[in-house]
Amino acid sequence: MKRLWLMIFACMLCPLTPALASTSDAQLWTAVGGDVVCGIAIHPPNTPPIQLLCSARPIPPPKSKGIGDPGFVFLGSVGHPLLVRLNQDSFVGTSQVALKAGSKWSVGPIDVKCTVGVGAVRCVNRAHHGFVVTRDSYRSF
């Protein structure tokens, strides 16, 4: 009987316990109300993926002139984020998964981890380089 009461009490507390963050390995995902789109960058066939690619309006163009649209950044397992211009779809996936605040993203071969907040996405690699992007700003580190 004592055990039953403990179980009832524990179940009453369940709604008060915050949900555990979910982890995604989606090939293509959105966050911050669809303002940030990220996923695995296209890579050669029969090779593992090596870079995360993100797109958002506040991501600045690279300093060098070039052809293509601004607003894209690559991040690999090591090194700093790389701002680029792209003029074609360069994501592996085609079906976007919306990640909610509190979600985390990672894919085995790419040693990059992203955390989705209410208004921001933060991605960091194993060399501790990365970026934070919101609806209105971009900052690399």
List keywords for this structure.
disordered N terminus; 1 helix; 6-stranded mixed sheet; 141 residues; mainly beta
In short:
The protein has 141 residues and is mainly β. It is built from one helix and twelve strands, in the order H-E-E-E-E-E-E-E-E-E-E-E-E. It has one domain (21-140).
Report the uncertain regions: 1-19
Residue share in helix: under 10%
Kindly state the number of beta strands.
12
Distance between the termini: 57 Å
Count of DSSP H/I helices: 1
Instruction: State which percent range the strand residues make up.
Output: 35-45%
Category by helix and strand content:
mainly beta
Radius of gyration: 19 Å
**What is the H-and-E element order?**
HEEEEEEEEEEEE
Outline type: globular
Instruction: Work out the count of structural domains.
Output: 1
Overall mean pLDDT: 88
Largest sheet: 6 strands, mixed
Spatial sequence of strands, sheet with the most strands: 1-8-9-10-11-12
